[in-house]
Amino acid sequence: MTETLQKYWSEVGQQARAASRSLLKASTAEKNQALQLIHDEILKNVDEIISENQKDCDVARGNSLTEAFIDRLLLDKGRIETMAQGVVDMIALPDPVGEITDIKPRPSGIQVGKMRVPLGVIGIIYEARPNVTIDAAALCIKSGNAAILRGGSDAFHTNQCLAKILQNALFQTNLSEHSVQIVATQDRAVVDLMVTAKNYIDVIIPRGGKSLVERINANATVPVIKHLDGVCHTFVDEFADLELAVKVVDNAKTQRYAPCNTMETLLVHENIAKEFLPKIAEIFVVKTVEMRVCEQTQIILNEHEISTLMATDADWHEEYLGPIIAIKIVKDLDAAIAHINHYGSHHTDVIISEHYSNTTTFLRMVDSACVMVNASSRFCDGFEFGLGAEIGISTDKIHARGPVGLEGLTSQKYIVLGHGEIRT
Amino acid sequence: MTETLQKYWSEVGQQARAASRSLLKASTAEKNQALQLIHDEILKNVDEIISENQKDCDVARGNSLTEAFIDRLLLDKGRIETMAQGVVDMIALPDPVGEITDIKPRPSGIQVGKMRVPLGVIGIIYEARPNVTIDAAALCIKSGNAAILRGGSDAFHTNQCLAKILQNALFQTNLSEHSVQIVATQDRAVVDLMVTAKNYIDVIIPRGGKSLVERINANATVPVIKHLDGVCHTFVDEFADLELAVKVVDNAKTQRYAPCNTMETLLVHENIAKEFLPKIAEIFVVKTVEMRVCEQTQIILNEHEISTLMATDADWHEEYLGPIIAIKIVKDLDAAIAHINHYGSHHTDVIISEHYSNTTTFLRMVDSACVMVNASSRFCDGFEFGLGAEIGISTDKIHARGPVGLEGLTSQKYIVLGHGEIRT
């Protein structure tokens, strides 16, 4: 760790803390104005963004990075416009800050309630996806938080260009120019400083692949809001409407393969396995979804001349993010719940059932951020839940759980309204 | 770290995790029955508790620990009965687990809401105050969490006796006997294992003096709910009702000196300083409260022949926990808020004012767990707020803030009620 880096970092940290204090008094109108200006500045600088982004893409190609990597890094006119649109869309979202709830009188005469306030300073560490820079900046501004953003070094030129745009926008407002800071060093040691900076950062949000999130989480002493992976289950109960089950299971697995809320493991009650499995397996065959199955499932599907692979224990833990599904027959609801709580990643899990008590037991007992009845796991999403843009999905239990939108970036403090009351 | 300790710890951790899963299905009646039985078992074993506690007190005396220390350690019949009563009192508190809120229909047809659920496994690390063992066990059971308790080694015999009582009570219920585990080793290395056991523990709550909390917080990778200290302020605004101000400031400082919600620093608007300061200072003189003051305050009080000490910068950071107060004159509301946000500990801060906008600005801008208008800071307390027993007061911003009662020991997961909806 060089002294220069330490000095740079403590400057960034102090500026962020000061900005977070001044953001406490920012009105909704001031924050919305900043969002409008960021949108405008992005559109004014499309050519410069593309040219800076080109530099990053050239370096990435020179370093023989994969086409998928470069595709995530690349910004063209359409993507830049979508990014800018996302910022103005946030203007319409309700401002969570200042909301006062649950004011109740107490026997002493005081009234006690809660006020929603920003968290303070949010550190976001992410990979070479420049759209995250703008999304995260906009979410933090709207929720009244100062942001310190550290994007992947492969997007360095793009991010520095976006930093300038954000600065230009903020300069035109009453908000502190340090409300959003983008780390201006490629030294990876800055990440170690960020994740342990309890005095400067209130929460760290890592966005990226499992290895990035694991690395950050292992070293962080600052609280982290994160999800590592999405090993989502659908359990088809013996009392399921099987037509509905086929439709929902198909959608949960095949509508899109890559999202974290896509189903990875299908659990089937043994009493309906013989009837249900061939129906859904035929669809998977047509859509060339590879099935990794338990022994009982294989026996049933063999009878229908549907070929499968034998699952290993590792398959029950696996987030495939592709056209592969693990399938297991379970003997009852309790076995399904135990499987999910043991092998799952506490993300999104679904029961398909028409049995009242089975659905309520499943809702209560499954220890996941989102538990659903008779719906596709693909619905676990900030927009689908009505939260608007999300900064990520949390599988932690402390603070925010599930899709983290503006409200997840705030906390509630107690307020007491008195009239001269004293304790006796 | 010995292999024996590692093995012991992983057994405790696995048992706690399993117990937390089975607690997910515990009914309110089952949890209340456990509380009743703990109460009964405590009262049945008063003599044994006293005799085991005597062993700890004898060792403490042999080690020349202070009388104050031994007083906190000591259990007599009265204290044991109070402890048992605290447990049955919790039966009357509403069960937070299972509460479903905010179910709203979405355009897709799904209904989205939240369900309150236990956090899972809570690790509590505390000093040689055996009453914490019973309080913490009861709060965790009622909120549906498994608990791992690690009390100060000076209370080892008492805590092992209380552990036996808790086990006896749990054996008579449907709850897992491992719902509450008391660490049965005096090896301090177990604390290092606890604070980094992300797989076994969902949250760590340290209870004790600042040095204990600081030590735990510095090393913890498991999320910590805590407060380090209570540097609480009262700001007497220029628009204060001065009679009310005298009454509330007196109460906030002198009703009890030791609690964390006692005021430590008094801030006074310069426009009313000459009128207000002599009034309050006379009370402090009578009650022999030492005043450490800014220069302006000293000049004013000198004119009234009231002697004071000059404050140093350290005084503005200090939690005296005794009959000492720091007093400073500030030029306006902004200066008061800036002082509190800079020097305070984000615990409880109060404005005394009749000016509408000043009170609303103070409520919004002061970055503390509890912000009050015209009331004594001493009200920041679980019972006074209507939360019932508290496990502590949090000055963190993530998750629970302020007094942490049963609700603070839970989280909310999303639930989705569908009818076969799929994403398109």
UniProtKB/TrEMBL annotation, chains A, B:
Keywords, sorted A to Z: Amino-acid biosynthesis, Cytoplasm, NADP, Oxidoreductase, Proline biosynthesis
Catalytic reaction(s) noted: L-glutamate 5-semialdehyde + phosphate + NADP(+) = L-glutamyl 5-phosphate + NADPH + H(+)
Localization in the cell: Cytoplasm
Organism domain of life: Bacteria
Pfam family of the protein (one): Aldedh
Enzyme class, first EC level, given as a word: oxidoreductase
UniProt pathway annotation: Amino-acid biosynthesis; L-proline biosynthesis; L-glutamate 5-semialdehyde from L-glutamate: step 2/2
Main location: cytoplasm
EC code(s) of this entry: 1.2.1.41
Domain Aldehyde dehydrogenase: 14-288
Keyword Oxidoreductase: yes
Keyword Oxidoreductase included in the entry's annotation: yes
Cited function: Catalyzes the NADPH-dependent reduction of L-glutamate 5-phosphate into L-glutamate 5-semialdehyde and phosphate. The product spontaneously undergoes cyclization to form 1-pyrroline-5-carboxylate.
Family (UniProt): Belongs to the gamma-glutamyl phosphate reductase family.
Name of the molecule in the record: Gamma-glutamyl phosphate reductase
Gene: proA
